[in-house]
Amino acid sequence: MYVKEIRRMVDNLRRELGIEEKVSVRIKPMKRKKATISLIRKEIRINKNILPDISERELMEIVVHELLHLKYGIFHTREFLEEMEVILNKKK
Ligand SMILES: [Zn+2]
After folding, report:
1. Which of 23, 29, 62, 75 is the most buried (most CB within 10 A)?
2. Domain boundaries in the chain?
3. CA distances in angstroms from 63 to 47, 56, listed in the order given
């Protein structure tokens, strides 16, 4: 996927999750994590190294996970996990 498409995906998903503030996207090589999010900068960082090996579906799941951190904070709370499940089921 091109960076432009990834940005569009992030934008669509954050709207769907009811997140009003814009979220920026950076693609950069990282050592271990697939992706991270800065809650202060509202910025998703996606590991460039994983992009050749993952499907669009997997990327979508990664992005949803990171966006939910914006909504629920740093912990994987019950609400976080429930919304994750709901949105992923909707997209099956
Ligand atoms: Zn997490």
Report:
1. 23
2. 3-90
3. 11, 10
